[in-house]
Design brief:
Elements (H helix, E strand, L loop, with lengths): L16 H4 L15 H11 L5 E4 L6 H8 L3 E6 L2 H10 L5 H18 L13 H4 L2 H14 L5 H18 L16 H5 L5 H22 L6 E5 L5 H5 L4 E6 L12 H12 L6 H6 L17 H13 L1 H24 E12 L1 E3 L2 E3 L1 H12 L1 E10 L12 E9 L1
Parallel strand pairs: 1-2, 1-4, 2-3, 4-5
Antiparallel strand pairs: 5-9, 6-7, 8-9
């Protein structure tokens, strides 16, 4: 498969919410998701049917969904347990009629139990800061009913729908940046009176329809593997030369200063029992979490060296944080190279960021690091961003890098 000299791409326009939520892409909120149409076109043009597409930072599984509806096998890797649950659910075909029958059973049990017994509440720090007492009680009843489902795939579908419900009925303030978790203001809480059971039922009906649409779109008998792991050790997880194409959207920077995936996932992890004891470990495993000694010439990127020098003049600690992220990111890029077969492609979608008020051109730095590893740069595209991606910054554009492993 080659680009055949054609460098005209159709995914540079703005997409509606309906387009972004096609198939199972909209079953649950998750930060910094790749626009599905970007993954779809990259996969269709840079791989063949039944090839294996790898996403080393798979998040909630958008690239995996686009792989299987394109007739490709898919491998997704991530360290976040909520992301892995969502990726499994979004790529698993289930019977809608069976799901709706389970919904009826769950609602009968939950409505019969509410008020008749005291549900066991999860051990969430500041529980009633995040949930009104009546809301927490109804969520606990629903969670108890779901836990009785024996079929793992069906139970995970309902856990994902429960998590989406939990987020919708919580006291989380969603009016500005929905990914940076903070509580509603007192005046907002007075008007906040959610209906837990109705919200859950509505979300399950919507999500079951999404699962049904996935079944209709999936034309080929292809497989998906979702694996927990650190992309810095990717080859040990997926095998050397195991992929025909990499399509991924890596983090823009260290979690503490960019997108805090652990904070976003915290409440779901507690409610779902997703190893919430290991949340601290997950956070310390994120790229750049462990400070590295800042040496100006240690990473082979002239652009990065220049910007680190400028950042250091303002803040040595910030320069160390940015350097630490790129040191870990460089390790991931080298692993991606080794995981690919020869004469295949690697596509990276990444936005720029700021540090100490200075622009960090992630696209340019990524390209230079990849070229040092041995990738051949084919195209570097810019696409306008339309939503807030970080806590306080609107990223003006994202970079779409297309490279080849010769």
């Amino acid at each position: 498969m080659t680009l055949e000299g054609d460098s005209t791409w159709t995914f540079l326009r703005r997409y509606s919410i309906e387009e972004a939520h096609q198939f199972t892409h909209g079953i649950h909120l998750y930060p910094a998701k790749m626009v599905p149409q970007i993954a779809r076109e990259l996969i269709s043009r840079l791989s063949d049917p039944f090839d294996t597409v790898l996403d080393p930072f798979c998040g909630s599984g958008g690239v995996l969904v686009e792989s299987i509806i394109s007739g490709r096998n898919a491998i997704g890797v991530d360290i976040n347990d909520l992301a892995l649950l969502l990726a499994r659910v979004k790529t698993t075909v289930l019977s809608r009629s069976e799901l709706l029958e389970f919904l009826r059973e769950i609602m009968r049990e939950a409505e019969g139990e509410i008020g008749n017994f005291k549900p066991e509440m999860p051990h969430i720090p500041n529980l009633y800061h995040w949930f009104k007492p009546s809301v927490a009680a109804e969520l606990a009843v629903l969670r108890n009913a779901i836990s009785k489902i024996e079929n793992t795939k069906i139970r995970e579908f309902f856990l994902a729908s429960f998590s989406a419900t939990m987020y919708a009925v919580s006291n989380i303030r969603k009016s500005d940046n929905p990914y940076f978790i903070r509580a509603k203001r007192p005046n907002e809480l007075k008007l906040h009176n959610p209906h837990v059971f109705e919200t859950f039922e509505r979300i399950v009906v919507k999500n079951s329809a999404a699962i049904s649409s996935l079944e209709e779109a999936k034309k080929q008998d292809v497989w998906v593997r979702v694996k927990k792991g650190d992309a810095r050790y990717l080859v040990s997880i997926v095998g050397r030369g195991s992929a025909d194409l990499v399509v991924t959207s890596p983090p823009y920077g260290e979690e503490k200063n960019t997108m805090d995936y652990t904070r976003f996932s915290k409440l779901s992890s507690y409610w779902l029992g997703l190893n919430h004891e290991n949340l601290k470990e997950t956070k310390t495993s994120s790229l750049g979490a462990v400070p590295r000694h800042y040496g100006r010439d240690e990473l082979p990127s002239k652009t990065l060296t220049k910007i680190l020098n400028e950042i250091e003049l303002k803040s040595k600690s910030r320069a160390t944080e940015v350097f630490s992220f790129f040191a870990d990111y460089f390790s991931c890029l080298k692993q991606m190279y080794e995981a690919l077969k020869e004469e295949t492609y690697c596509c990276i979608v990444i936005g720029d960021r700021t540090a100490s008020g200075l622009l960090v051109p992630n696209g340019d730095v990524s390209r230079e690091l990849c070229e040092n590893i041995g990738f051949q740069s084919l195209e570097a595209l810019k696409r306008k961003m339309y939503v807030k991606a970080l806590r306080s910054n609107v990223i003006a554009s994202e970079n779409i890098l297309i490279m080849k492993r010769n």
